[in-house]
Design brief:
heterodimer; A: 466 residues; Aconitase, domain 3; Aconitase, Domain 2; 3 domains; 5-stranded parallel sheet; 15 helices; 19 strands; globular; B: 194 residues; alpha/beta; 7 strands; 17% strand; binds iron/sulfur cluster
Chain lengths: 466, 194
């Protein structure tokens, strides 16, 4: 029988199926962080249990950590306690922790791949919805809630109902100035913030195959923003090349053995998907969002939809409410609109390649006086690479503030927040009300578009600078 | 986990679409290390001006004493966004045992079920009918028969839930009990992989 890539991995991880119920799915790798794990540790301790397979768990502190003075004790008391609890829980349960001060610390979805822990064919979970990022390697990776974190602690399994299969094919060459962030914002704008709910998505086609691993991760990362359980891309030579030699990637004979397995990981030619969507890469422009969910995006030269012309009442109300929050007008263009902040970071776009893209645009130039620019590398390793390549000098000369690794203003849990009412062009993944701080107004875009706006202080079409 | 068989209650209507988990419980409240106490911050930024409990936004429904009950009714795509289970804890802690919508985000749905909060999926038309009820109108949700009824009109619709989850909810069992009872099979699976 013809199988999809997803089927192949899923089926080989089902320990048991329950009739008219979910499957017991075996989990190969479990990432944890400080925010969604403490209650799960408490849960298993209340049951008198230890973590069942601690060697398959990897921890880091990322959501809540400061991005300045990381060598000093955390000032915010609750944050400090939460991070402290992670340290204690990991020690007690024998779990490897890459916490503050460790050279592997960073955003969980940045460090897994860069350390070679993320590998093709694995099942990977984390108490974080952007776990879908790891799917870029041809793994089944998805976010779970804390009760499910507890399940994995207790049994190395989760109960999951098999999602439906969707494939999104993107064929052709990308236009100049268009990068993978634009592809995914375009897809979400097309199918809406709930368009893939109930599905696991495979991204395929020549435009995807041409992308680097980092660019693929950006796409898989935002699968959740259209409601998908996860996203994945079949591994190929680009994948293997990226993985080779990484800290925890297989080596020597083990590598050769794995390569044989990994090369089987693709959707068979006649595999059937519940839904297929075809996209022409040439149709994609640099994208930007105007509303308060990631599906409300437009090409940078387009105007905000005229609300009177939106036929569906629910959608119309939703957009009107969004525009009110954003302080934007129906039918207005975004191009040329002043912004006050630029945030370059998050598990979507904080990898070295993203930062190189930014550096290329701004090299030798100075930011606009009207904006503050914060640039937050995704991990200590990315930060080290930034230094090694001298990018930090370029950023500093441009007046950007380079911070230390963490989630930062992506969710504004630490001090890195955008003030109420102000606009921020952000390379992160969510533009929800208050996401970057109470009252903050977020416009999601690519690192290129963010870099262009940093120089001009207004929403800018980066193609004019390339 | 609390068992769930049937509830009859007035409801709190939130006729908005795409209510995401950052609205249900903003990130700054995720620093807690227990599951309790999130209810008072449910929809925090919709509830208070300037994050101040002394200045409630009077036009927000949870601040309107005329609307109460143990059922929350919300527009399409409720619970989208982050995987934070804190959202389900906040809903439960605020006294809701069921959420009704025409569409739920997957992770929220799982999180709710894992905490004994029943997500009830109804058609868009039925959802509209519910929203048209006055604040005194009650709904009856029966898990055994998988039906939801608008008591005033008698209009009723059935909803889906898989047999496994239904049994868990009715008996107050959780998934961990189930998984632990399968330890031997899990270990056998691991051996097979080696
Ligand atoms: S960077 Fe943002 S989206 Fe990514 S894991 Fe951190 S908080 Fe979540």
């Amino acid at each position: 029988m013809a199988n999809t890539l997803f089927d192949k991995i899923w089926d080989s991880h089902v320990v048991k199926s329950i009739e008219d119920g979910p499957s017991v799915l075996y989990i190969d790798k479990h990432f944890i962080h400080e925010v969604t794990s403490p209650q799960a540790f408490k849960g298993i301790e209340n049951r008198g249990l230890k973590v069942f397979r601690p060697k398959q768990v990897v921890a880091t502190a990322d959501h809540n950590v400061p991005t300045v003075d990381q060598h000093l004790p955390i000032k915010d008391e609750l944050s400090r306690l939460q991070v402290q609890q992670l340290i204690e829980n990991c020690a007690k349960h024998d779990i490897e922790l890459y916490g503050l001060g460790h050279s592997f610390q960073g955003i969980v979805h940045v460090i897994g791949p860069e350390l070679g822990i993320t590998q093709p064919g694995l099942t990977i979970v984390c108490g974080d919805s952007h776990t879908s990022t790891h799917g870029a390697f041809g793994a089944i990776a998805f976010g779970i809630g804390t009760s499910e974190v507890e399940m994995v602690f207790a049994s190395q399994c989760v109960l999951q109902t098999k999602p439906k299969a969707m494939r999104i094919n993107i064929e052709g060459d990308l236009n100049k100035g268009v990068v993978s962030k634009d592809i995914i914002l375009y897809i979400i704008a097309k199918i809406s913030a709930s368009g893939a709910t109930g599905y696991f998505v495979e991204y395929a086609g020549s435009a995807i195959r041409a992308l680097s691993m980092e660019a693929r991760m950006t796409i898989c990362n935002m699968s959740i923003e259209m409601g998908a359980r996860g996203g994945m891309i079949a591994p190929d030579d680009i994948t293997f090349e990226y993985m080779k030699g990484r800290e925890f990637a297989p080596k020597g004979a083990e590598w050769d053995k794995k390569m044989i397995e990994w090369k089987q990981l693709f959707s068979d030619d006649d595999a059937v998907f519940d839904l297929e969507i075809n996209i022409n890469a040439a149709d994609i422009e640099p994208m930007i969002t105007y509303g308060t969910n990631p599906g409300l995006g437009i090409g940078i030269r387009e105007s905000i939809p005229v609300t009177d012309r939106i036929p569906d009442e629910g959608e119309r109300k939703n957009i009107i409410k969004s525009l009110q929050y954003m302080g934007l007008n129906s039918g207005a263009p975004l191009l040329g609109m002043p912004v006050q902040h630029i945030f370059i970071g998050s598990c979507t776009n904080s990898r070295i390649e993203d930062l190189r893209l930014v550096a290329d645009v701004i090299k030798g130039k100075r930011k606009s006086d009207n904006v503050q620019v914060m640039i937050v590398p995704g991990s200590q390793q990315v930060a080290a690479q930034v230094k090694a390549e001298g990018l930090d000098k370029i950023f500093e000369a441009a007046g950007f503030e380079v911070r230390q690794a963490g989630c930062s203003a992506c969710l504004g849990m630490n001090e890195d927040k955008i003030p109420a009412g102000e606009y921020c062009i952000s390379t992160s993944n969510r533009n929800f009300e208050g996401r970057q701080g109470a009252g903050a107004r977020t416009l999601l875009a690519s690192p290129l578009t963010a870099a262009a706006a940093a120089l001009t202080g207004v929403v800018t079409d980066v193609r004019e600078m390339l | 986990m609390q068992a769930f068989k049937e509830i009859q209650s007035t409801f709190v209507p939130l006729p908005m679409e795409n209510i995401d988990t950052d609205q249900i419980i903003p990130a700054r409240f995720l620093k807690a290390t227990t599951r309790e106490g999130f209810g008072k911050n449910l929809f925090r930024d919709w509830r208070y001006e300037n994050d101040n409990e002394a200045t409630p936004k009077t036009d927000f429904i949870l601040n309107n004493p005329l609307y109460k009950g143990s059922i929350l009714v919300a527009g399409k795509n409720f619970g989208c966004g982050s995987s934070r289970e804190h959202a389900a804890w906040a809903v439960l802690d605020a006294g809701f045992n069921a959420v009704v919508s025409s569409f739920f985000a997957d992770i929220f749905k799982n999180n709710a079920l894992n905490n004994g909060v029943l997500p009830v999926v109804v058609s868009d038309e039925f959802l509209d009918q519910i929203f048209q009820q006055p604040n005194t109108g009650t709904l009856t949700i029966n898990l055994e028969t998988q039906t939801i009824t608008i008591d005033a009109t008698g209009a009723s619709e059935s909803f889906e839930i898989n047999t496994y989850k239904k049994t868990c909810m009715i008996n107050g069992f959780d998934d961990i009990d189930f998984l632990l009872s399968n330890k031997e099979e899990i270990i056998a699976y691991e051996k097979m992989q080696m």
